[in-house]
Give the backbone structure.
Amino acid sequence: MKTSRRNFIKTTGYVAVGISVVPGLAWAITEDCEAFPEDVNLDNLISDWVQILEDGQVRIYTGKMELGQGIRIAIAQVAAEELNMDIDLVEVHLAETGVTPNEGYTAGSNSIARSAMTIRRATAAASAILLDRAAQKYDLKREDLYLKDGMVFTGVTGQAYSLADILEGEHIEEVLPEVVLVKGKKDHVIVGQPVLREDISIMARGNSVYVQDMRFKGMLFARVLRPLAYDAHLTEFNKERAEALEDVVRVIRKNNFIGVLAKDEYQAEEALKLLADDCTWEIKKKLPAGKDLKEYLPGLTTQYESVVKQGSVNFGNDSIKSCYFKPYIMHGSIGPSCAVGYYNEDVLHIWTHSQGVYPLRAALSDLTGLPEEKILVKGVPGSGCYGHNGADDVAAEVALFAIEHPNTHIKLQWTREEEHAWEPFGSAMIMELQGELDASGMIFKWNYELWSDTHSTRPGGKKENLLPTIYYEGTEKVKLSGFLGGGYRNSQPYYRIPNLQVEANFFDGPLRVSALRSLGAYANIFAIESFMDELAEKAGRDPVEFRLAHLDDPRARDVLVRVREMASSTRLKENQGIGYAFSRYKNSASYFAVAAITELVEGEMKVRKMWGAIDSGEIINPDGLKNQTEGGMIQSASWTMMEEVKFNEDHVESVDWGSYPIFRFEDIPEVEVAVIDRPNEEPLGAGEAAQGPAAAAIVNAIYNATGKRVRDLPVNKNF
């Protein structure tokens, strides 16, 4: 192993704080490839997170990506609070290999709970070190000093000392105490406040923000010729007409991977059309077009897991059973995936909107054979995400182009059709429930069995999970097991039930699947909260009161009571119904309750109004929390009402917004969100809390409006 400062520190068993007073030296990153640092070894140390610049400003490093969730501003708030400085003096540097900490993926609603809280501790430790150094240097009493906007002040004389003068270019490394004293919650002035996001105004002005906007001098534009099916093999290849087009630079073929490089995107598209006509594919395996997936998919089961079993679930004659279905749904990214690549002197540079730059780097190493230290991956915001969409795949494809055609920047922008047809979808799921009440009308027995494909095949260092691998290597499709636990996320109800059993069955389905916002929680909570209404009806009780009677956690009860209060003054019109639902995401994160009003209008079902109440513990930015929750409710309403991936015997048919409709503006209901602040509780992730309950509240409202119980999604198939 190459000896470095970080490796040395690691072997000593200490944790160190490193503060550089030389801005932009070892850490300077520009879009010029030559400016990438060659060897910055980053471990999980405080010095990975915070850097004090010579002018007193602060640069924060996070391994998380900005996906529209507002993590950049939330992290800046946390850092500015601990360093007692104006938030405009804090710069947040997002995920980049060799520069930022390796925090894996930006996923699972973990960015605030992990990255932001680590940065809180790191900046608090840095603040203490700076005050100590000032006291030592100027022979002052430590307790008289305080930090303010990048300067150290003395409360006695008001004298100010710049950090540059205090440190005089010295790079400090000190042992970090196990316990870091952070700012008291009652003293917070920035955390807990709504702070405007400057990046939104930049987007609204149409300035360059996204990887899709990137341009380099002499850059070439790439396109990939897609096979006719997942398991199609090239049998005839003719490139002459495509290669003869003006401004077409090269047609590249390696095994079944075929691509075009051109000086402009139009000519690349024209060449692709000719190649599509001049190449022939053999389709080896057909898809189960026309099958009833609710009946077909359980027959593909290959694995079983007992999630929980307590008591006995031997049912009597008075139990009720229901079976629910969720189809394949897609991310529906508004901006199709894109990446830029550059290969020069054995070093590969990738600009990407991947949710995990380090895992992507490892997978690219596996695919290309390049050592990881020769691959530099920089995160750049992309438009549209919500999970594992095509971002990693397009990055892998542009990497192959760059290696095949070095010394030139190459951009690969997927089309709408590619994004819809080739992204990994959220798995279809089947959920079968059986429940029984005791003599007092309480749930006595509960059995839950689900069938699902995996819910994450993110690259994670494995080339097999990258779309181009089998085509580039000419190998057979290999499907890895992925994250099976995502299938039974939130499958265990958060209610007090004495006899309980949850079982999960995993199938190897026909479509490519991976992580989509909330993973299996969306379908599981949809089924559980629908069934709770069915049991409440059997018990003859109000659905909200029925839930409250089975909840011991006061925070869970609070969100339900709050949302009922929010909706209490509503007077329903003819053909309208109101429904409620609740869950605690992952049974360990945010609490969320929701109410929805639906209305049947001339045979078409509409969602008119939704209320949500969320408890995410300590709030960093209430606007960000509301935005996340509102977005989750609306996205879930769209999934629930109309979204479904359709396919024929060869491939996906949902290739545009006509064949895969999502909510338009006129479909979006009025949404109102209340936030319950718990400043003395740990902050919890909120980005995936709303999806499942929102779906259940809608179908419960539909039942109350029409008497029709929707168990198979999407809703619009039923009206």
Remarks:
- Residues 111-138 form the longest helix (28 residues).
